[in-house]
Amino acid sequence: MKSHKIHQAPIPMRTVGPIKISGHILNEKVSVPLATYETPLWPSVGRGARVSVLTEEGIKTTVVDERMSRSILLEADDAFEAYKALESIKARKDELNEIVATSSRFAKLIDMNSQIVANLIYLRLEFTTGDASGHNMVTNAADKLIPWILNEYPQLRYSSISANYCSDKKATAVNGILGRGKYVISEILIPRDLCERRLKTTPEKIVDLNIKKNLIGTMLAGGLRSANAHYANMLLAFYLATGQDAANIIEGSQGIVHAEVRNGDLYFSCTLPNLIVGSVGNGKGIDFVEQNLAALGCKEDREPAANARRLAAICAATVLCGELSLMAAQTNPGELMESHLKLER
Asked: Less CB within 10 Å around the terminal CB: N or C of the chain?
């Protein structure tokens, strides 16, 4: 028999920062581990981090919402039977949560969204999942709910535990609208002289480029609820360093950059509605991951979900650092390629 030994795939990793972060989750300077083959990412995020330290509030982060979804697919004989059953199911959330409680002490059903197509019921179940990102937790909860639903509604039939209305690891409009994971916004106000001195550009140039590149350019490309330069770069590096499911950068990279000139200074923000991170769960038992999470202050004895919220806030601040730096570089002809040639060759 062939060996099924698990091997390691080493990826270069470096700690960047510190990043100055403020807001309702944390108020401190944090150095962030990033694992990536794209080595220019470290100095790029580092430049954004240095700017954050030199501003009054640093990067302000706000966790707006949190939820993990699993959509199930059920069938009825016709649309009216599907409609009647669905309306009844949605009115019984308390009973559903009694079933959910048998699957996990952390999972809680907080909302349901649905679509009926012909005789098919697409039921999106949305849960809070404590400090875990929650993929397995919500699937397990759904697995417990389905037999109960089919017993209570014999006119329904099972079709799938996942109906793609979740929508897991795919760029979809529904995730941007309803949210999947942590919905986090990071913001910074950069004085004009700091923008010119450290970013080698002006607030006006960054605002102009954001409109023409991130907004109009993405619209022309057919982007889906997304307007950013390279969220995925920072997300992948952060996810790999902290033991996250890296495929979730697909929906995670959906997000919008907004920039304004405020009294001559630069307001710059990154909105990330689908930031899927957890401080416990699958992928977290590896030594370097545990060390990185501990260094980020995300393994502390806190109330449920507090460590995951902290991790999400730090991640959103990291994304802003890299996004800001790249946008500044692209306002200057030749700067982007020059940095890659210098740092990669």
From this structure: N
